[in-house]
């Protein structure tokens, strides 16, 4: 059974930080590009960040560049999203997802999705 289990969400004040984690099982994790998407209330899914199968520098949406950092640990089958300087506009359910091919910003190119973790940025 394929599982992507996201965790680490919560309520944080503007300017604060959170670290999201995503635990993967049931598929060849090291072969997949891993990404984070988010979906705010009443809006469609928004691509946030991706990291290649071998790790290294991630790529980011302009809205989070310089504030968020994606990383992965293939030995632990984990992907992370470090979020700093959080803003109210970052409020959303955050999903991790796995893709083998195609444009990473297109949610249709993802084979597996996690259940999401809610991040609320509010004072």
> What is the SS-derived class?
mainly beta
Helical segment count: 0
The biggest beta sheet is recorded as: 7 strands, mixed
Query: Percent helix among the residues?
Result: under 10%
Name the poorly predicted regions.
none
Q: How much beta, percentage-wise? A: over 45%
Give the helices and strands as they follow along the chain.
Answer: EEEEEEEEEEE
* Structure summary, number of beta strands: 11
Model description:
The protein has 123 residues and is mostly beta strands. The chain is 0% helix and 47% strand. The strands form 2 sheets. Strands 2, 4, 5, 6, 9, 10 and 11 form a 7-stranded mixed beta sheet that branches. The termini are far apart. The model has no long low-confidence stretch (mean pLDDT 96).
What labels would you give this structure?
123 residues, 47% strand, mainly beta, seven-stranded mixed β-sheet, four-stranded antiparallel β-sheet
Question: In summary, what is this structure?
Answer:
This protein is mainly β. It is built from no helices and eleven strands. The protein has strands at residues 3-7, 10-12, 18-25, 33-39, 46-51, 59-60, 68-73, 78-83, 92-99, 112-113, 117-121.
Topology:
Blueprint: E1 3-7, E2 10-12, E3 18-25, E4 33-39, E5 46-51, E6 59-60, E7 68-73, E8 78-83, E9 92-99, E10 112-113, E11 117-121
Parallel strand pairs: 2-11
Antiparallel strand pairs: 1-3, 3-8, 4-5, 4-9, 5-6, 7-8, 9-10, 9-11
């Amino acid at each position: 059974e394929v599982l992507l289990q996201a965790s680490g969400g919560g309520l944080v004040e503007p300017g604060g930080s959170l670290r999201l984690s995503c635990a993967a099982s049931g598929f060849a994790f090291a072969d997949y590009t891993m990404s984070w998407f988010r979906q705010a209330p009443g809006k469609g899914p928004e691509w946030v960040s991706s990291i290649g199968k071998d790790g290294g520098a991630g790529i980011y949406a302009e809205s989070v560049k310089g504030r968020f950092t994606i990383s992965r640990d293939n030995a632990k089958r984990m992907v992370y999203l470090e979020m700093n300087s959080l803003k109210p506009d970052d409020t959303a359910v955050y999903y991790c997802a796995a893709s083998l091919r195609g444009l990473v910003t297109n949610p249709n190119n993802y084979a597996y999705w996690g259940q999401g973790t809610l991040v609320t940025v509010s004072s």
